[in-house]
């Protein structure tokens, strides 16, 4: 649980990096066929995650703390999968909450999220699998390229491998 909601809304300098379309398109082949309803728990207006998922036939429930729907307190009645790009300064709290909800999820996080003893133990306990794109995503439209690699940290998808290097539409199931 976040102690101070004002701090949660203000957050870190790199927490408002908006997900580019190509970052969502590359994970579409990895969404299980049984998934019909997806919850995007950090969806801003005009979210590319929501737009791409809806364009591909999914029902999307969107929420955001600024709309009074705090991921740490709110949960939709029905959904099959969480897909989100959470604030990176709160990645541990988002992961912990997702594990508590006990639903499959896909979170776009810096690849350095693999680092650390505590997270390593948590990932092993919950059998986290990672989709590692072949390129970095550009989060800021005015700039060419990005200075860090992000990957999709997943749980509950039942992929064949724990580390999945992706760059094509080939499905690793």
Could you explain the architecture of this structure?
By secondary structure, the protein is of the alpha/beta class. The protein has a single domain (5-166), classed as Rossmann fold, CATH 3.40.50.150. Helix content is 23%, strand content 19%. The chain is built from 5 helices and 7 strands. The chain has helices at 5-10, 21-25, 48-55, 91-101, 117-126; strands spanning 37-40, 59-62, 81-84, 105-110, 129-133, 150-155, 163-166. Strands 2-1-3-4-6-5-7 form a 7-stranded mixed beta sheet, sandwiched between helices. The chain starts with a helix and ends in a 7-residue tail after the last strand. Residues 6-10 and 168-173 have low confidence and may be disordered.
- Gap from first CA to last CA: 34 Å
- Give the low-pLDDT segments: 6-10, 168-173
> Remind me, CATH topology?
Rossmann fold
* H/E element order: HHEHEEHEHEEE
Protein name: tRNA (Adenine-N(6)-)-methyltransferase
Organism: Flavobacterium aureirubrum
Can you lay out the helices and strands and say which pair or pack?
Layout: H1 5-10, H2 21-25, E1 37-40, H3 48-55, E2 59-62, E3 81-84, H4 91-101, E4 105-110, H5 117-126, E5 129-133, E6 150-155, E7 163-166
Parallel strand pairs: 1-2, 1-3, 3-4, 5-7
Antiparallel strand pairs: 4-6, 5-6
